[in-house]
Description:
CATH superfamily: YbaK/aminoacyl-tRNA synthetase-associated domain
Shape: globular
Number of helices: 6
Low-confidence stretches: 1-19
CATH class: Alpha Beta
CATH topology: YbaK protein
Number of domains: 1
Helix content: 25-40%
Radius of gyration: 15 Å
Distance between the termini: 46 Å
Order of helices and strands: EEHHEHEEHEHEEEHE
Amino acid sequence: MTTTDDASGSAATSDPADAGAAHPRFAAALGELGLGDLAGRARRFPEATRTATEAAAAIGCELSQICKSLIFAADGVPVLVLMDGASRVDLDRVREELGAGKVTRAKADVVRETTGYAIGGVPPFGHRTRTRVLADRSLLAHDVVWAAAGTPYAVFPMEPKDLVATAGASLVDVRERSE
């Protein structure tokens, strides 16, 4: 195993065993998108990183460099919100952005049914079903962000603008603001 400084400026481990770090369904989706090289850049951890804080600690990056993939229900319709790891989603802003009457966090079974992945491992794209995607502009503050690779044990790095484009996301301002 070797340690290298990646584009984020943090140390990352590189191990031949990491080649299969991404969930097989997500690795296949990357291949279909012409992004198969990203599967090889995925990092697998011995412990689950179900929260942004756990992922940032395992990677050695800033909390805001984690891209959270969160499923909400807008008037009962699933929508994906991509948010930096240091911020929280403002449901009223999401509701206004979508023109929805009600926005709630989706239940675990809806997340799995919609994306094909369990909470804590939902990647920003490569889902079972197509959903509307909103990406908070805060993700663009870094050169590289890290997102789940289909399991709570694996993440992959990507330039935020490429991640937003690949996810087919609309750039929005939906994070909570401190007054």
